[in-house]
Design goal:
With 107 residues, the chain is α+β, with helices and mostly antiparallel strands. It has one domain: Winged helix-like DNA-binding domain superfamily/Winged helix DNA-binding domain (Arc Repressor Mutant, subunit A, Orthogonal Bundle), CATH 1.10.10. It contains six helices and three strands. It has a three-stranded antiparallel β-sheet.
């Protein structure tokens, strides 16, 4: 996963409201959840929910599909797994010595 995509995903989840919304969708499973049900769970105005959902969609974490008159939102588990994989990449491999890690982060 590219660092910029990982940063966008983590940034979207860095907001408490968006994290709560995403947790509702993860709990909902593969069937997803209608926007009205998400609103009921997180108890925020519909316009605010729409704003936060769009941020999650732009980050690739949420998929929206129209089903009749409803919009069903589903967590993108592939993207979530990619984010977790990005964090765990090189897990327990040790930290380079001599400032190499700082040089790598700075570039």
């Amino acid at each position: 996963m590219q660092e910029s995509k990982a940063a966008a995903g983590f940034s979207a989840l860095g907001n408490p409201t968006r994290l709560a919304i995403f947790r509702v969708l993860v709990q909902a499973g593969d069937g997803g959840c209608p926007i009205g049900a998400i609103q009921h769970q997180v108890d925020i105005p519909l316009s605010t929910l729409g704003h936060h959902l769009q941020a999650l969609v732009r980050a690739g974490l949420v998929i929206q599909e129209k089903s009749g008159r409803e919009v069903i939102c589903t967590a993108d588990y592939g993207r979530l797994n990619d984010l977790v994989g990005y964090l765990k990449e090189n897990c327990c491999a040790g930290v380079p010595t001599g400032g190499a890690l700082l040089d790598e982060v700075a570039s």
